[in-house]
Amino acid sequence: MKISLIFAPYELNTNNEDLAFRDDGIGVIPPLSLLTVAAILEQEGVEVQLIDQQAENLSYNTLLERINRFGPDLLGFTLTTYSFHPVLKWIKRLRKDTGVRVLVGGAHVALYPEETMFHKEIDFAVVGEAEIPLPQLIRALIRGESLSGLKSICYRTPDGTPIIERTRQTMKELDRIPFPARHLIKNELYSNILTRKKNFTVIMSTRGCPYRCTFCDQKTPPYRWRSPESFIEEVRLNREKFDIQEFDIYDSTFTANRKRVMKICELLVAEGLKVNWTARSTLMAVNHEMLDAMKAAGCHTIMYGVESSNAEILKTMKKSIPRERVVDRIQYTHDIGIQVLGFFMFGYPGETRETIEDTIRYSLELPLDYAQYTVIWPFPDTEIHDLYQQQGDLGDYWARYTLDPEYNHKIDLVGTSLSRDEVSKYVGQAYRRFYFRPKMIWRRLSRVRSLGEFHRASRAGFGIIANSLKQTFSSDNS
Question: Which residue segments constitute the domains of the chain, with CATH numbers given?
Fold first, then answer.
């Protein structure tokens, strides 16, 4: 069996052959989920083609030519909430032009399998994590066996009727998951805004999150982690085989298991791997000892979810943490030479003009190197989504959104007198006030060692602003 896995660009017209998908200011991140799926398929003896259309700047005709030359039996795609309809456009056109059946998976599919299968171009859907059900599906297809009774697999009968199976299966032992099939992509094409080295990739060391932030969906899968030894082995393999020198640890909260983080840092130093890396963390998880260990092991940037300066709003988010601790952890991170990116969210229940202004001032006072500001968005499978359903007019918004690409119901904010448009304007104001301060401009200039680095840093700064504003205002128009 042959399968083509395609990572399609978001929000781009499939009919425009002259589009440039790649933006080196923002960067392009490797499609980790598809790389993992590819590794699972290869274990089953499947011949896999992985095409990252965005990273390779492929026109539709070139993409189609490569697929036809390979001759796959299936086309595979990942569908997320944010990307659902943009990627569906590519699916529809490729399904029509190739005649090849389509397999999809992803977080949004797991939440809305029936609505996903409503789209007749989709032949199969994997519900939830792929490690257990995907091999079972592939074996059944190869043998020509019935798919009836397979858990976590949606499919169609010969007359096109969708069969929906909602069971979500969880891979408990993450060490059993094969390393992502990075040999299928050109690793030198990838970077992100914070990258310092060429040959960059993303890596996963945990799934889920033990914390219960009300705006996040990562609480649903149970929190699991790989052993330090498994993680180090993947780092070593990528360093030796692909000369990958920088990793973005793509966990929701890398630092949640303190003992494990300390062991990973110890092994990175002891084995002399000399890699650079970034990670995401809650400020509740880190202490000075852990930060020292992370710095010694090559961590150059930590992304913290600060979110708000207001204690009541933080309580509503289930992120109650004393302000003095926030200041201490961020200050210490900065003092030992680790860059800090702070995430901030506006528009939560209880938000006022005064609380937003105070949060903006707070973000300017903290020793942050980067800041990202967003407006709250009630994504499915979150507590804030449930609150919006109870107190607002959200209804079953995401089900309707999945069914209809033209659905254009604007979601009003709940628990605040502020409108979404007002809060979006504060987002733009916050970016201007943060990034265009003389102090920030001087800090960026003082770290530049070449003209090329200056150009890249400038594009990176504007990339953060442009990318975040694009998402904010495109969400507002949804």
Answer: 2-163 (3.40.50.2300)
